[in-house]
């Protein structure tokens, strides 16, 4: 009975900290590093979107490209190794694409404003 209380309280039978707590901390540190990498990659992708917006403006092309967006969504769901399911991956990338399109529009508008000065 005393052994059960120790286990539930976060200790192992030998009195040390539970393996789970240290494992959670380690995994959370890994998540923090991955989040930093994701942030850098998302900002790098966004910088590309800004440049694309400027080029589209110069060429007189629309920001919205449904064929390109559909291709991206099809590709990322096809290449998804999991554990995220395809619907989750699709939702994440839909949001990334929405933000990229917003940045393209802003860049195209700013570029157009500068030309009109």
Tell me about this structure.
With 117 residues, the chain is mainly alpha-helical. The chain has a single domain (2-116), classed as Chorismate Mutase Domain, subunit A. Helices cover 79% and strands 0% of the residues. It has helices spanning 2-8, 19-59, 66-78, 86-116. The longest helix has 41 residues, at 19-59. The chain is elongated, with a radius of gyration of 23 Å. The protein starts with a helix and ends with a helix.
Rounded to the nearest angstrom, the distance between the terminal CA atoms is 80 Å
Q: What structural category characterises the helix and strand content? A: mainly alpha
- Please report the number of helical segments: 4
* CATH level-four homologous superfamily name: Chorismate mutase
The CATH level-2 architecture is identified as Up-down Bundle
Domain unit count: 1
Tally of strands: 0
Mean pLDDT figure: 85
Order of helices and strands: HHHH
Q: So what's the CATH class? A: Mainly Alpha
Radius of gyration: 23 Å
**Strand-residue fraction?**
under 5%
Main sheet characteristics: none
- Parts with pLDDT < 50 across at least 5 consecutive residues: 1-12
**Share in helix:** over 70%
Q: What does the oligomeric state look like here?
A: single chain
């Amino acid at each position: 009975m005393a052994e059960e209380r120790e286990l539930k309280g976060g200790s192992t039978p030998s009195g040390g900290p539970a393996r789970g707590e240290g494992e959670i901390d380690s995994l959370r540190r890994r998540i923090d590093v991955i989040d930093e990498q994701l942030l850098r990659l998302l900002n790098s992708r966004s910088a590309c979107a800004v440049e694309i917006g400027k080029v589209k403006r110069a060429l007189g092309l629309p920001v919205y490209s449904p064929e390109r967006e559909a291709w991206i969504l099809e590709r990322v769901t096809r290449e998804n190794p999991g554990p995220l399911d395809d619907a989750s991956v699709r939702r994440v990338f839909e949001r990334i694409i929405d933000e990229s399109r917003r940045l393209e529009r802003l860049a195209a508008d700013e570029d157009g404003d500068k030309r009109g000065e």
